[in-house]
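Reposting from the mailing list since nobody answered there.

I have sequence plus structure tokens for a pair of proteins and want to know whether others read the tokens the same way I do. The first protein:
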Amino acid sequence: MVPEGRSAWRGRSVAAIVGVLGVAALATGCGSSGGQAAADAADGRGGGAGGFPATVTDCEGRRTTFSEAPRKIVTSNAASLEMLLRLGAGDRVVGTGFPPGKGTLPPELDARAQRVPVLGKTVIPKEKLLGSGADVYIDTFASMGMMGGAATGPTEEEFAAAGIKHVYLASTACAPRKKVPQRDLSAVEADIRRLGQVTGTSHRAGRLVAEMEKKVSSVRAALADVPAAKRPSYFFFDFDAGTKQPVAVCNRQVANAVLTEAGARNIFADCASDFQPVSWEDVVAKNPDWIQLGVRNRGSAAATGKAFDKAEKFLKEFPATAGLRAVREGKFLRIGSEQTTIAGVGNADTVRRIAATLYPDRLAEPGADR
């Protein structure tokens, strides 16, 4: 069998990350408009100080200060859009790139997300972003460096001239240059708190983070006495990156934190990057105990299920992987790419789902604690 895929990893990587980062299909939503008003008042948007001035730093350590909450926000993709919806600031988003596909967000979020103007189906064109009238741009991609758009993205001077403050999701945008691996969700939680600071919704951000930490802490407690060497090896198979050459999630990627918290050993945890092309020989040499079928949400359960089927079929029929221990024993996890590789509230749920699969005698079935 000849594996399918694009001719070069960067092309495959762009397509995969576009799909993955363009859809944030996570599990829980925000409240009603009445709850929104109450939350805004509690967070200070009703006329109080709201924690301002608030100062945040970017990947280079540059400081940006907000004297008040922004009124017009543009998001680079559906990941940052989803965070803002959960924080109760979605009504201030005036545009996004990489929009979520219809139906890929929970109903209580989806309708609101679909009303957000789409400034770019992928990367927002430079001129459109600078002319958007936004007060702030929430950037998941670090000027699109991995996406091939760095040359056309605005400079910091151009953002300043347009009156747009540039804020990053550090857990993803700054990941490639981190000096240490991501082994827990602290960077993701910090992103949520940072957006809470910027938008004046810190109280709600604190609640979201507390809910995440409660879920992850229960897993840590259940696995506390399992030695690192005894934890099962795990391969995140990024099916949407193509099958000609596999793309590994490395130790700077959010997924490494998710897998580590779930009690798994990422077989590419020695890779000091976020994503990196590897070979099938590398995967075979590591012979993982479990394989996650990394498939993005296709917009419906049926379509997504077919994509999972296709990913599993490939691993079973491709000669290089057919003999892997996980493939022979059918140890596959069907958990979407978005909840694993994108920073968000859903990362904590993914930790719980993976851990419950790998350690069924220690944890209840996935969803039992929701």
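The second protein, same order (residues first, tokens after):
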Amino acid sequence: MNWFFITLGYSGLSPKAPGTVGTLVSLPLGMLILIYFDAQTLFLATLLISIIAIREINKYEASSGIHDDKRIVIDELSGMWFALSVAPAISVSLSEVTDFQNGFLVQSLLSFALFRYFDIKKPSIIGRLDREAKGGVGVVADDIVAGFAAGILSALIWQGYLQFHSIIA
């Protein structure tokens, strides 16, 4: 078991809100992958990390007997990166990150907020996965679905904004 990996560089050891801290660490890392590579690279990296996370979490749970330890935050990285691979899902240069018109920063921050909301509230299938799935799959799957939902909703909100803005302009 790799404690550094499953606590995302020990960010999960934060005494307050380790899940939020883990997500905050994940956000700029994912944004950098989008800036220097592309959404497909981020998506594939997320799949690989998620698979490794499931294996490492299973090892941790077998040795500790603790399911879904709050210090394990690699699942937050999986969820946040899934959200970012859906929205903004565009490649921009570093100088274009703060350009409001491309939506990169807005969608990234909106994805963060929506992911945290879905991860904390666990509505619908997200909560069901959290309660019923066992082992590492149970720990990671709810975050992946929360991230996917956050990305889709973020993209829909951004597109709605663009449509509304074009009507009133």
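Reply #1 (J.P.):
I read it the same way you do. The chain has a mean pLDDT of 94.
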